[in-house]
Write a structure and sequence with these properties.
This protein is α/β, with parallel strands linked by helices. It has two domains: 247 residues, 3-Layer(aba) Sandwich (QueA-like), CATH 3.40.1780; 79 residues, QueA-like (Thrombin, subunit H). 20% of the residues lie in helices and 28% in strands. The chain has seven helices and 17 strands. Strands 2-1-17-16-14-3-12-13-15 form a nine-stranded mixed beta sheet. It is globular. The two termini are 38 Å apart.
């Protein structure tokens, strides 16, 4: 499978630069993967596709203000770091820029020494393992010194940092938002619950694995970076009951897909667990639990478009994307939404 098999044409003006004023006013492209039909709806219509006893599964990770700009203690050279994942204690994996200036032993100071980062080891592609040195509570210091790590295709300043956070974000640790969930408001979630739909959560801290570009022509040579996940017993119980009652499990976001499919692949069933996943889902993959997915529109040639191509078929997905471009949908993190499902499960007019 070649990288260009997952390419598509996207006019730059369709890349959403700012979130809509109200989260749930985004558009919703419904793609029926069994019939390849497409419907154009609004995100609030998602409730029409959910029935009593169904379960909506969300990723409750919370984005940290992971982008820090500081200076080398010795030369005062400006260095930017992006905290990717907490390895253990105060040791973090991070991306550095310019990486060539950050060598083993380099100390970078932020906020006049309020926070310091010491480079412990140098890896490929600008990745470094660093130790954070500080007094007090790290996340409070990050709130003070850091900014939200918006993707590089967003050039506008984010006025309200919370707009790059889902309304149900709880578990601190992501370097990027699970953006499929950004469309939900508390009011919409209350309406969904009132309809008898369960809401269950998993955690996957979004790191480099989710948004690193694929640089290999043969996609099978791409190596995913690992990301931390956890699945609670409460969520296992809800999902097992949903399956036993032959109800729909509707998954919000590719990160949530990766948690559920990781656990099913590893154990052959759902069970309470946590760990690191580097699962790479591309066409040919047999899904073990996921059938209905709420997702955003993804970058050309990304692992995310490969994942949804595995679920709905590459040609079907690329055709839907062409339709979305034609209808001027907004793309990527702050863009519109897509619901991949089956017509025979949704006889809603």
């Amino acid at each position: 499978m070649k990288l260009e098999d997952f390419d598509y044409e996207l006019p730059e003006e369709l890349i959403a630069q700012v979130p809509l004023e109200k989260r749930d006013t985004s558009r919703l492209l419904v793609l029926y993967k069994d019939t390849q039909e497409i419907e154009h709806r609004h995100f609030t219509d998602i409730i029409d596709f959910l029935d009593s006893g169904d379960t909506l599964v969300v990723n409750n990770t919370k984005v940290i203000p992971a982008r820090l700009i500081g200076e080398k203690e010795d030369t005062k050279a400006v260095i930017e770091i992006l905290l990717l994942k907490n390895m253990h204690d105060d040791v973090w994996e991070c991306l550095t820029r310019p990486a060539k200036r950050v060598k083993e032993g380099t100390v970078i100071s932020f906020g006049n020494g309020l926070l310091k980062a010491k480079c412990l080891s140098c890896l490929d592609e600008g990745i470094r393992h660093i130790e954070l040195i500080y007094k007090g509570i790290l996340y409070e210091i990050l709130d003070q010194l850091g900014t939200m790590p918006l993707p590089p295709y967003i050039h506008e300043q984010l006025k309200d940092q919370n707009r790059y956070q889902t309304v149900y974000a709880k578990e601190v640790g992501s370097a990027a938002a699970p953006t499929a969930g950004l469309h939900f408001t508390n009011e919409l979630l209350d309406k969904i619950k009132a309809k008898g739909v369960n809401i269950a959560s998993v955690t996957l801290h979004v790191g480099l694995g989710t948004f690193r570009p694929v640089n290999t022509e043969n996609i099978l040579e791409h190596k995913m970076h690992s990301e931390y996940y956890s699945l609670s017993q409460d969520t296992v119980d809800i999902l097992e009951k949903t399956k036993a009652n032959h109800k729909k499990i509707v998954v919000v976001g590719t990160t949530t897909v990766r948690v559920l499919e990781t656990v099913m692949t590893k154990y052959g069933k759902l069970k309470e667990c946590n760990g690191w996943t580097d699962i790479f889902i591309y066409p040919g993959y047999q899904f073990k639990i996921v059938d209905h997915l709420i997702t955003n529109f993804h970058l050309p040639k990304s692992t995310l478009i490969m994942l949804i191509s595995a679920l709905a078929g590459r040609d079907t997905v690329l055709n839907a994307y062409k339709e979305a471009v034609k209808n001027r949908y907004r793309f990527f993190s702050f863009g519109d939404s897509m619901f991949i499902t089956n017509k025979h499960n949704n006889n809603h007019e």
